[in-house]
Design brief:
Helix content: 40-55%
Number of helices: 20
Shape: elongated
Number of domains: 4
Strand content: 5-15%
Distance between the termini: 39 Å
Radius of gyration: 41 Å
CATH architecture of the largest domain: Up-down Bundle
Structural class: alpha/beta
Strand order of the largest sheet: 5-7-8-9-6-10
CATH class of the largest domain: Mainly Alpha
Number of strands: 13
Length: about 650
């Protein structure tokens, strides 16, 4: 299970410059993006101009014009002496009739027209002038128009449109501070003391880390006491810990307790496509912090820019290395009177450059580890402050049922329980909601719509019953909490075990019983059905991995005794060797494989012995699972005790 980071308490980030008051919008209404109205009017104007140009080109004017008739129709009207006057412009002929004519618009509608227009054929008409004189038609003419400036407008308009749109986007980038002229400006966001309400009371546990950080706060507020003793303010504090343990929350708590200007930035904010931009942003950030000292700078995910320098597998990275060099230079450049503390957080301290970690830069490294059971109780109480809970909610039981959960995981657990309670329109959260939320977080959603036939369901029930029975029989195994054959996530069934207390060391007896419990499912398959299934894939992977670590890392093999074969390898991208030379021979590797196989076989044999001895209990557990699909660990224990009594 992946542990996610700190409790997500959003801190409002505001620009240090005072903003002008803005007009309030009605509830639910959002302001239109910059330039949208201008763009709409520009498109309307473009449409009208093009319409006007085409209408002129068509000769009908802006609001329509004379209907167009065939040239042969025009000659017929001349023969009938029904034309009063004619105007010729190039090949275009317009005129006025003496008697209006009927024009069919559609199948049902007709209209009358008096004016008309037509075009001279391309081969000309030598008799037209004579016919006009003979008919007494008044004739006027003008040369064909040479409106080249219309073509200039038509061809230049797309360019003008492109320039206007580009100007709009440029203004928007400038407003967001990402213009080309501001590309080297610091991206650090200033959080003023009055806006930061997070205190150490909002952080549960980690008393040792709080003590270290409180000392920094006291030094910033009153450095004279420490300076009398010859002490210097630590320049850098590195918060190290797994994701979700509260590193960022600790940084906000330090800023809230100190009441000082707090600059926040992530390592990726320094990176840019242009070399040297990151280094300039580092200089600008430290310049602002020094101007407002005493102050605190917090760099989250510092491993983005603080990785070890070197060629590595894919070569160096000039921009990141220059940014790191500038950061190292700034950390060394503090004057005694400049009370600026740099805090940073990472969950990968192993990849950081050694020059960054030496004393004088990051003087202190504070580990924020996964919370213990007592700390999980305190975290639950913090996140349950604004949640209505039923009286049956037991924080101690929840904390015992969530080993390995980080603060972020616990917050997510209670949020999922709130959603489950809200789904059925309840006004408070019950213990059952939290149990369901825990199953959802650990195992995933229930897989609905799976048509599992009776034979497969029976096989799954015996597989999980095998795990549960072996865990209940063996003395060093963790107690069974729940057994279920409801498909969740990628698992067709799950047997949950919860430790009675927090474990930090695992003895050999516990590990051997753990291996036997994992083998219980495969042993039950072969005992009852005389076959093996693919459902034991994950079990076998766990057994192989744990048995190999017992032999190679933990010195728990009878053949090799107290030896470790050093299987860890350096990261390739750090510029280390791609592979590490083996510290043992091929013959030793073969013997290691034999020892791993021996431990796995012994675990399987112990599981089979336990199931064979308590075969009737195995059958009863499987029968109950087929009926109810889910039973508690207490039911398994009672079935075993009833058989023994």
């Amino acid at each position: 299970m992946e542990n996610n980071t700190e409790s997500n308490q959003n801190t409002e980030r505001k620009d240090p410059k005072k903003e002008m008051p803005k007009k309030r919008l009605p509830a639910g209404q959002t302001p239109p993006p910059a330039g949208r109205n201008m763009f709409i009017w520009l498109m309307i104007f473009t449409f009208l101009v093009l319409w006007y140009i085409f209408s002129l080109n068509d000769g009908n004017g802006f609001f329509g014009g004379s209907p167009e008739i065939d040239y042969s129709h025009f000659r017929e009207e001349l023969k009938e002496n029904n034309i009063r006057q004619v105007h010729v412009q190039g090949e275009r002929i317009t005129g006025e009739l003496i008697q209006p004519r009927q024009l069919r618009i559609s199948r049902q509608d007709t209209t009358f027209y008096n004016d008309f227009s037509t075009f001279m054929p391309s081969f000309g008409d030598d008799q037209l002038l004579a016919i006009l004189e003979e008919s007494g038609v008044r004739l006027s003419a003008e040369p064909e128009s040479q409106n080249y400036w219309w073509y200039i407008i038509i061809f230049s308009f797309p360019l003008l449109l492109f320039l206007i749109i580009g100007f709009i986007f440029y203004r928007r980038l400038q407003a967001q501070g990402r213009g080309m002229m501001n590309i080297g400006q610091s991206q650090a966001r200033l959080q003023r003391p009055e806006n930061n309400k997070t205190k150490f009371a909002d952080v549960a546990g980690h008393e040792g880390a709080k003590t270290e950080l409180k000392e920094i706060i006291e030094f910033l507020k009153d450095p004279s006491h420490f300076q009398e003793l010859g002490a210097k303010l630590p320049k850098g504090i590195l918060l190290v810990g797994p994701p979700g343990t509260g590193k960022t929350l600790f940084a906000r708590a330090v800023a809230g307790e100190a009441g000082l200007p707090f600059f926040t930035i992530t390592g990726s904010d320094f990176m840019e496509m242009f070399v040297g931009v990151g280094a300039k942003r580092v200089r600008e950030m430290f310049k602002k912090a020094k101007e407002m000292s005493p102050s605190i700078i917090f760099v989250d995910e510092i491993d983005s820019i603080g990785r070890s320098r070197g060629a590595g597998l894919g070569g160096g990275h000039d921009e990141r290395e220059q940014t790191l060099n500038q950061l190292l230079s700034e950390l060394d450049g503090f004057e005694p009177t400049e009370n600026v503390v740099v805090m940073a957080a990472t969950n990968r301290p192993d990849i950081l450059d050694k020059a960054l970690l030496r004393p004088g830069r990051f003087d202190r490294q504070i580990t924020i580890d996964l919370p213990s059971q007592d700390t999980r109780v305190a975290i639950l109480k913090i996140h349950a402050r604004n949640k209505p809970l039923d009286e049956d909610v037991d924080f101690d039981k929840i904390a015992r049922a969530t080993p390995g959960f980080s603060g972020a995981d616990i917050e997510n657990l209670l949020n999922e329980a709130s959603l489950l309670a809200g789904r059925v329109k309840r006004k408070s959260i019950s213990m059952n909601d939290i149990e369901k939320a825990r199953d959802k977080v650990i195992m995933g959603l229930e897989r609905e719509g799976m048509n599992i036939d009776h034979d497969e369901k029976k096989l799954i029930a015996y597989h999980e019953a095998g795990h549960a029975l072996v865990a209940t029989v063996l003395p060093n195994a963790d107690p069974v909490h729940k057994v279920t054959i409801i498909p969740r996530g990628r698992a067709m069934g799950v047997t949950q075990q919860l430790p009675q207390k927090e474990k930090y060391l695992y003895n050999k007896e516990y590990l051997l019983d753990r291996l036997a419990v994992i083998m219980g499912g495969r042993a039950a398959e072969e005992l009852i059905f005389d076959t093996s299934t693919s459902g034991a894939q994950n079990d076998l992977q766990q057994v192989s991995k744990m048995a190999r670590k017992m032999v190679m890392d933990w010195g728990m093999s009878e053949k090799f005794g107290h030896m470790s074969f050093g299987t860890n390898q350096e990261e390739v991208f750090l510029g280390r060797d791609m592979t590490k030379q083996k510290e043992f021979s091929d013959e030793t590797a073969r013997e290691i494989d034999e020892e791993v196989q021996k431990i796995s076989r012994e675990a399987y044999a112990r599981a089979m012995t336990s199931l064979t001895k308590h075969r009737n209990v195995l059958d009863r557990i499987a029968k109950l699972l087929l009926e109810k699909e889910e039973i508690s660990g207490e039911v398994v224990t009672s079935l075993l005790n009833h058989k023994e009594n």
